[in-house]
Amino acid sequence: MIPDYPLADSLATIRKADELGFYACYAVDETWHKDMWLLFAAAADKTRSIRLGPSVSGIILREPTLIAQATATLDELTRGRAECVISCGNFGLLSQYHIDWAGMKPLTRVAEAHRVIRTFLDEGSLNFEGEFYKYTGLFTFARPVQQRLPLKLGAVRGPKSFQVAGEISDGVHHALSSTREAYDYLVENVKIGAGRAGRDWQSLDIGAWVVFATGRDSAVAKEAARSMVGLYASSMPAEQLERNGVDPQDLQPAVDALGKGDPAGAIELTSPEIAERLSVAGTPEECVAKLRTEIADAGVNHLILAITDAALVKALMGRDLDNVATVDDQLQLVHDEVMPAFA
Predict the structure, then answer these.
(1) Percent of the chain whose pLDDT exceeds 90
(2) Do the domain assignments include residue 263?
(3) What CATH number does residue 33 fall under?
(4) Is the residue at 169 inside a domain?
(5) C or N terminus of the chain, fewer CB within 10 Å?
(6) How many domains does the chain have?
């Protein structure tokens, strides 16, 4: 979820997802949005089984030991239901901080941060000297309830990022792709990394984070998804766009508009064809068909639906859309008509 609704509404949505049996609720740990750690802490005692955590928390803006501390604290609050997905973070957001991520050896940094967080979660103390992080005698009383709290990587570019995830982490969440070519590429490289470490790739959480909208009116749902694609596509590297059948030059006008602070213009410059390539939207039947053939059949075992509704489009883009199913109504439709197809 993007936690930009009134917080009472977000908490109600998390409770509904819990009641409907969804596996987890993730939120991005970014300055652009309300603080997901505080939101999930508030949701901890209002839920029973749903897992909670960041997907993703960026290790450049948030120091890795602080990510471990927050995740362990959330695990105690939820009685063992926390997870954590890390990455370098949103490249567009980093640029607003005047951070040149490309010159920071991002994949090497993420792998080292993963080692730091894994050790701090497992042992509660750190003596470590790496290329990017150094600690002497550091300790914490923030201890997870789970014997091994799941720690995963978020990755979009590949192939090395997917391979590293398969080699060292509990899984990978791949965002903003929705074509078979992109997910075949993801799974192929996760297998390579897992094989290098002698691991069973099928034991890993291989998650597809997709822009998603559903409802009885297919055209309305697809228009809602197009609004969100116009926001997120700017963070996709050229290689990823090409694996999804999108020419990066075709999206450049939308990226430029967003860079000038014109999100409405970015939406208008995102064609329906591009939106179709970069989202899963339509009636429940249409969504099931695309999720199955383009994503699940590639070997992905975890569908992560970034549900888009009119309230979210209005909050993020200032754009009014009529007749779009609310996020809670979409959760119900997914439960009733999408989940059974994958049971």
Answers:
(1) 80
(2) no
(3) 3.20.20.30
(4) no
(5) C
(6) 1
